[in-house]
Write a structure and sequence with these properties.
Chain lengths: 264, 1257
């Protein structure tokens, strides 16, 4: 069963390119059982643009500086003659807003571990590869990475590197591992770093639970119901026609040579 | 006994038998020869018996190796590749592959190149295998053995390929000539030999060739020890009927003509051996020069398919254009907006915001590659593969296996299988195709009495059908007794004398009544003699000696036994002699004469020996006849005569010939039997028998001697007037004849020919008969195989003058046009009512008719006729007719003939028996047509359903050209995951089973009207594809976005969406084909569900590869999508929705607008065909096309005719009965009343049109 357990808060205010700390208040309408997933949603952001999608090097993520062919990462491949790890536009434009949640005055614990696929962490982003020469160029993109933490532990990066299929998309930020009661007031403090103003995209914050069918999705239910209804309708129409004007099985009057007037 | 006769025969001078016709003096040709030789085109020099001279220049000629292969080891790769990339689709994919290694690449290069290599490789493999088979065939021919002179009079066996120009070869009886040979001598003293040129021109009659007189002496091996000569002749050329050259022998020069040239691919017959010198070898031979490589024909469906491909190209260009414009707009505005793309750093100009125009252009090119999935790359190769498999099924069909020859139908080229399902006209050859070129003696009329009253098939069938009809009618009458019916039947049988015995014969077979006809019943026990199918106890077993007027009868049999050119060959068991003669007719006469007790047992140069039955003593005695003269048969004389003298010195002229010719030359006192004979002749002709009239006269010695001197003089004349003189001479003696009677021989039809023609006509096929025979024969055969019947109006198109010169061409055209116009009026006047029409065209008239300006008129008349028969048609003309008819009518024309290697019409299929044509067309053709059409439509569907999802996705990526699916998914789509079920569809699909196809010929119409591959259907399938693609894409997008798709709150990225969408596509297209197939075998199940399983298997293996290979697909199935229930639910939902339109369509179609095959499927499935057999049979009858051609139509006409007669008879009978005093006494009895009532009812039934229709169908 899917329920309207989520709330969207627009944080689309403030001034361009100025980091702002702002707060927003979310009213929880119903009981939300843990785990509650925190997503940020970007609109009108073409993470699926071909130039963007191919601008990465999977081998570099595995082998670090040992991998030299960074041609696919251009223009974010070398800075000051040194390779960039992780290279490419995707990593360069890493989302860098941060959120903290307060219930009343208590800061809630947000688990930001295990938000990426396990296979990504274990097999695609190596434990021995550390960020290097990252965000050192003339143009500053998104988030900076701690060069002391290996890529396999940089889960925000791993999540971001899974490019979304559509220009409106959500990314997992973390999990709140405690239940939220109805009528709880959640205060969100956020650091609005990421530039979405240039493309008039909006940022949204989504809190959602998930069932065995995934998150809240009206479409699936509606689709199933409408398909079912249309089937029943078509079946009904056919049945009506059949009852009113039946065509017996193997009826010979329908054979083409029986349409023609008989010649004799 | 056979030994000595054999040797005698060898040295028999056959040329003595011939007075004129086949061998003319060659003197008049020598003059131009002299002028021509040495000129360009006539420069060939051959040193006979010195073949080593031809190994090196200047007279180096190729050896006798013949190759029909298309490629060799070196040329295979470039030429085969060139052939492949001549196809537009393949060329496009080649360009795409080239682009894929440039920065413009839409995909990983491998994913573009791999399918192309696969597809082209497969096609080339097929080419290679076909060529290999040709190579093996060549090797077979090239390694045939022939005896070659190696010096010192020694002949050794050598293979054909090692033969050189100038070699002396010895060819034995029934062997093929290894090259074009100059005939030096033969086993006959006069250097004559007989060749069969069937492989060259399809003619089965033997042709005589004769060597020069100077080389006659070279008739044994040793004679070639010192033989040396030089031949100067024309250069190699393809003309089969010309040859110009000189033989220089011992400083003398002799002119050569075509009658000394033995052509490759022809066969030595009736001659023990010949010696010849190789003039043209291998590729220089006329046969090889003449053989054009069979042009690759493409079926109607395939030509239309090309247009469908172009349509898809059009679609592709359109969406590419949209993409390019979209991309340019996004790029232009993208610099400021999409900072994360850093478009200003663009280096490859694909997304250059400063120059969006050129970026758009590049994007256009990329889009063309990206949307390449709209073009079914594997369509061509799949069709090729399917057709090869279809051809295998055709070749392996046991129902088309001829046990006599051990051969099956063979599809020589597989690319016309489906064309067989669309044939609208059949142009058929006669000899060897419809007939087996074997004559059977069937009937004769002696002294005005007809013997051999064998029931013809048509009569038998008509009487049987009448009986059934009456029976059927009787069921509708309540309480009528069975005696009533038999009276009807007897009455019917008295109505027409000619059908009397048939009806009785039938009765006898079914009821075994007492009134049996002993003539017919006893004859059935006779053992068959080949060429003799005559049953009549009045003549057989020497019974004729008890008939009156035996002397004329003896004369009749003597004509049969003496007036011919045949020779006895061998004696087999039971003292019967076998014969060989110029025409199979004569053999039939000789065998018949033997059966009647006039055994022709020996021929020497001037005598003929008969073993005659003496009627007075009943003993057989040998009589020797002196052959004084032989007046040869030819087409203008239409008669043949021999002048013989018997042991008593009496001279007789025995003559046989066409009826009109003989009747013109009868003496007034010789016409005793003419009236009766004429009647019999027309009866025989109606049965399709070939007739000939016999006559004789006694010649007084002075008269003969007088004439003989005239004739000798005429024969000795050299020059153009010779023929005329001979003609006049023979005219002098062949007159005042006494008519003896007539014979009828049957040009034996191949088994099942009338039935096959019948079925084909019922399937709506038009049949034209094209034959090289004379008009009478052609018409006879037309009757025999029921193409013609008596009540058809025969329109004859012929020329009055024999050979028109150029000035007369205009008049001739006028004449033909005039005839055509009058016929046209005649046909339009009748307008479908009344009698059917048959057009009979003579060869010369045909030549004029096919000329450019008369053509249209001719064809429009011909198309309106129910049947067209063209006689005296040359092979070239046959090809011309075929082409013209095809062009004019736009119909699919099938030409069938027996020219095994007909140079002009290279065959695509070969059948051991004509009757297999029925199954080949109506079953295999129909199936293949439906299969190929369905297959192409499915290909279009599946590629649209898949290819368009790429386009939709592209809209969501800002037209940047990002593809939704992993490259390897895309490779697998056409190569593995969707290609196999479609092959099972193309090979195994049957809408109805083969016996239903045969029973309902109307189903064949689907192909003729091309309803399975009409534009309506094509557009329908394109729409279906578009709907499926929309369903697949949108449902997936909306189900998976924007919220999480599993319990862990994970979100779908490109790879997830791609995998899920792709899964849906695979399910959809594979389930779609399951919906299309109506005939499931385990193979189709295995391939369809196997393909789907294969996808999961592939996905599983791919996602288990290390991440450096599998990239984002790594663990996608096992860790991410697989465990998520939404993945499976989405698949189900998408599958159901995307198949819904098609499902609804077929339900509506089947429920409300069913096609014939739907109904028949239902009847078959529900078992009504077994439960309600009368209905099943009735529908079969009704499904037949209304046709005037064929056996059934003829039976119908006969029945109509009989019923009319019956009606008339009944009326008079009824009147006579009611008026007779007997009737008045009978009236007192109750039974009589009943009977009369029945008769009246019966008569009323005919008046009731509705019932009549039901009865006549």
């Amino acid at each position: 069963m899917l329920m309207d357990f989520w709330k969207v808060t627009d944080i689309n205010h403030g001034m361009i390119l100025i980091t702002l700390i702002c707060t927003s208040v979310i009213h929880i309408p119903k009981l939300m059982k843990a785990p509650i997933f925190i997503y940020y949603q970007l609109d009108n952001y073409y993470q699926n643009h071909r130039r963007y999608v191919k601008s990465r090097s999977d081998r570099q993520l595995l082998h670090g500086l040992k991998h030299h062919d960074l041609s696919s990462c251009a223009p974010e491949d070398f800075n000051h003659g040194l390779p960039v790890v992780p290279c490419g536009l995707i990593a360069w434009s890493l989302f860098n807003d941060t959120y903290s949640f307060f219930r009343g005055i208590d800061e809630m614990k947000v688990n930001r571990k295990n938000i990426a696929w396990k296979s990504d962490r274990d097999h695609k982003f190596d434990k021995q590869v550390y960020p290097f020469n990252f965000q050192n160029g003339t143009l500053s993109g998104g988030a900076h990475l701690d060069p002391k933490i290996p890529l396999s532990d940089q889960e925000d990066l791993i999540v971001w590197m899974r490019t979304s299929a559509l220009p409106t998309f959500r990314k997992l930020y973390g999990r709140i591992e405690e239940d939220l009661d109805a009528d709880d007031i959640i205060t969100v403090k956020l650091l609005n770093n990421y530039n979405t103003y240039s493309f008039t995209g909006s940022k949204k914050l989504v809190l959602s639970t998930s069932s065995w069918l995934g998150g809240h999705n009206n479409f699936l239910g509606m689709a199933c119901i409408s398909v079912g209804v249309s089937f029943i309708f078509v079946a009904f129409v056919f049945m009506l026609i059949h009852v009113k004007n039946p065509r017996p099985y193997g009826d010979t009057t329908n054979l083409s040579w029986n349409w023609k007037p008989m010649s004799g | 006994m056979s030994g000595p006769t054999g040797r005698r025969k060898q040295k028999l001078k056959w040329s003595k038998l011939y007075t004129f016709s086949c061998l003319r003096p060659t003197t008049d040709e020598s003059a131009p020869t002299e002028r021509l030789l040495g000129q360009p085109g006539f420069s060939r020099v051959v040193f006979c018996n010195e073949s080593q001279l031809h190994k090196s220049k200047p007279h180096k000629y190729p050896n006798n190796y013949v190759s029909t292969t298309k490629y060799n080891l070196i040329t295979f790769l470039p030429r085969a590749l060139f052939e492949q990339f001549r196809r537009v689709a393949n060329l496009y994919f080649l360009l795409a592959a080239i682009l894929s290694v440039t920065p413009l690449a839409a995909f990983n290069p491998v994913s573009v190149i791999a399918p192309l290599v696969f597809v082209v490789g497969l096609s080339m493999l097929k080419e290679a295998i076909e060529d290999w088979h040709r190579f093996l065939q060549d090797r077979n021919v090239n390694s045939r053995r022939v005896k070659v002179h190696v010096g010192n009079g020694l002949f050794v066996q050598k293979s054909w390929e090692s033969l050189l120009v100038g070699d002396i070869v010895k060819v034995s009886k029934n062997e093929y000539f290894p090259g074009d040979l100059l005939l030096l001598s033969s086993s006959y003293e006069d250097g004559l030999c007989y060749v069969e040129t069937m492989n060259l021109d399809g003619e089965t009659n033997l042709k005589a060739k004769r060597s020069l007189e100077t080389t006659l002496g070279l008739d044994e091996d040793a004679a070639f020890c010192k033989f040396k000569a030089t031949v100067r002749c024309e250069d190699p050329n393809p003309s089969l009927y010309t040859f110009v050259g000189n033989l220089d022998l011992e400083k003398e020069s002799y002119p050569l003509s075509p009658s000394q040239l033995l052509l490759r691919d022809s066969k030595l017959r009736n001659t023990e051996f010949v010696y010849g010198v190789v003039i043209f070898s291998g590729p220089d031979t006329k046969a090889i020069r003449n053989s054009t490589r069979s042009p690759s024909k493409r079926s109607r469906v395939e030509r239309k398919m090309d247009r469908v491909i172009y349509l898809l190209f059009g679609m592709m260009v359109l969406i590419s254009l949209i993409s390019a414009v979209g991309s340019a707009l996004y790029t232009k505005s993208g610099n400021s907006k999409m900072w994360y793309l850093r478009l200003h750093d663009d280096t490859d100009n694909l997304f250059n915001p400063e120059d969006p125009m050129s970026s758009g252009l590049l994007q256009f090119v990329r889009a063309l590659v990206l949307y390449g999935y709209l073009i079914p790359i594997s369509l061509y190769v799949s069709i090729e593969l399917v057709k090869v498999l279809q051809a295998m099924l055709i070749n392996k069909d046991l129902a088309m296996y001829d046990e006599a020859t051990g051969k099956t139908v063979e599809a020589r080229t597989s690319n016309l299988n489906e064309e067989l399902g669309q044939v609208e006209m059949i142009l058929s050859d006669k000899t060897g195709t419809l007939t087996c070129n074997q004559m059977e003696f069937r009937k004769c009329s002696i002294e005005g009495i007809s013997y051999g009253g064998e029931v013809t098939e048509v009569d038998l069938a008509a009487s049987r059908r009448m009986n059934i009809d009456v029976e059927r009618y009787r069921y509708s009458l309540d309480g009528s007794d069975s005696t009533g019916r038999s009276i009807e039947m007897f009455d019917l049988s008295t109505a027409d004398g000619s059908t009397e015995k048939d009806v009785l014969g039938f009765h006898q077979g079914s009821e075994d009544t007492k009134t049996g006809n002993s003539r017919i019943s006893s004859s059935q026990k006779e053992t068959a003699v080949k060429g003799f199918n005559f049953r009549d106890n009045r003549l057989m077993d020497k019974m004729w000696i008890y008939r009156s007027n035996v002397s004329d009868m003896i004369m009749f049999f003597r004509v049969m036994a003496l007036c011919h050119t045949g020779i006895p060959v061998e004696e087999n068991r039971g003292n019967k002699i076998m014969y060989e003669a110029e025409s199979p007719e004569e053999v039939a006469f000789l065998i018949a004469a033997q059966e009647f007790g006039f055994k022709f047992c020996q021929r020497t140069q001037s005598t003929m020996v008969l073993q005659e039955l003496d009627p007075s003593s009943g003993l057989e005695m040998k009589r020797e006849y002196k052959l004084l003269n032989l007046l040869e048969f030819n087409s203008s004389r239409k008669r043949m005569s021999v002048i013989v003298s018997n042991e008593d010195g009496e001279i007789f002229l025995l003559c046989k010939g066409a009826d009109d010719v003989i009747f013109d030359r009868l003496a007034d006192n010789g016409r005793t039997y003419q009236q009766a004979t004429v009647m019999h002749l027309s009866m025989y002709a109606e049965d399709g028998l070939r007739t000939m009239v016999f006559a004789y006269k006694k010649v007084g010695l002075p008269e003969y001697e007088n004439w003989s001197s005239v004739f000798r003089k005429a024969k000795a004349t050299i020059g153009p007037e010779r023929e005329e003189l001979l003609e006049n001479a023979s005219e002098m003696i062949e007159k005042e004849l006494l008519l003896l009677g007539a014979v009828a021989v049957e040009d034996k039809l191949q088994k099942g020919v009338p039935e096959c023609i019948d079925k084909l006509a019922q399937a709506g096929l038009k049949i034209w008969l094209l034959t090289g025979d004379k008009k009478e024969t052609a018409v006879n055969i037309g009757f025999a195989c029921s193409l013609l019947r008596h009540d058809m109006k025969q329109l004859h198109l012929c020329l009055r003058k024999e050979s028109p010169s150029n000035q007369q061409m205009k008049d001739v055209k006028e004449e033909i046009l005039c005839q055509l116009q009058s016929y046209n009026q005649l046909i339009t006047a009748e307008d479908g009512e009344g009698d059917p029409f048959a057009l009979v065209v003579d060869g010369k008239a045909l030549e004029v008719s096919l000329s450019y300006d008369v053509r249209n008129q001719f064809l429009s008349v011909a198309m309106k006729c129910d049947v067209v028969i063209c006689c005296r048609v040359s092979p070239k003309q046959k090809a011309l007719i075929t082409r013209t008819v095809k062009e004019h009518s736009g119909k699919t024309v099938l030409a069938i003939g027996d020219g095994a290697n007909d140079a002009v019409m290279a065959s695509d299929f070969s059948l051991p028996q004509f009757r297999f044509l029925e199954r080949l067309l109506i079953v295999h053709g129909h199936w293949c047509y439906k299969r190929i059409s369905k297959m192409i439509l499915y290909f279009v569907y599946k590629n649209i359903a898949f290819g368009l999802t790429l386009f939709y996705y592209n809209i969501f990526t800002g037209f940047s050209g990002q593809d939704l699916y992993d490259d390897w998914y895309m490779v697998m789509f056409n190569v593995l995951l969707t290609s196999l079920p479609v092959i099972s569809l193309g090979v195994l699909e049957q809408n109805v089973s083969s016996d239903v196809c045969l029973k309902f010929p109307a189903l064949y119409q689907e192909g003729q009207r091309n309803i399975c591959f009409s534009w309506k259907r094509i557009i329908g399938w394109i729409l279906n594809g578009i709907l499926a693609s929309i369903a697949v894409f949108t449902i997936n997008i909306y189900v998976l976005f924007p919220s999480a798709f599993d319990k862990e709150g994970n979100l779908a990225d490109i790879e997830h969406i791609g995998t899920i969408t792709y899964t849906c596509v695979i399910w959809t297209v594979n389930c779609q084909i399951a919906l299309m197939i109506s005939h499931f075998t385990w193979i189709s199940h295995f391939l369809i569900w196997g393909s789907i399983l294969c996808w999961y298997f592939f996905l599983y293996s791919y996602n288990n590869l290390p991440p450096s290979y599998s990239k984002n697909v790594f663990h996608i199935f096992t860790e991410q999508t697989g465990p998520a229930p939404l993945y499976w639910i989405a698949t189900l939902l998408v599958l159901v929705v995307s198949l819904l339109p098609y499902f609804t369509h077929i339900v509506i179609r089947r429920s409300f607008f069913p096609m014939d095959d739907h109904i028949i499927q239902e009847m078959k499935y529900s078992g009504t065909d077994v439960r309600d057999t009368p209905m099943w049979l009735r529908e079969q009858e009704k499904s037949k096309q209304l046709t005037q051609v064929g056996y059934s139509a003829r039976v119908d006409a006969k029945i109509r005719h009989l019923k009319e007669q019956l009606h008339r008879k009944r009326k008079s009978f009824y009147l006579s009965v009611t008026n007779s005093p007997v009737y008045k006494t009978m009236m007192r009895r109750d039974t009589a009343e009943e009977r009369v009532n029945l008769m009246i009812n019966f008569r009323n039934a005919w008046k009731n049109p509705k019932r009549k229709a039901g009865l006549l169908v």
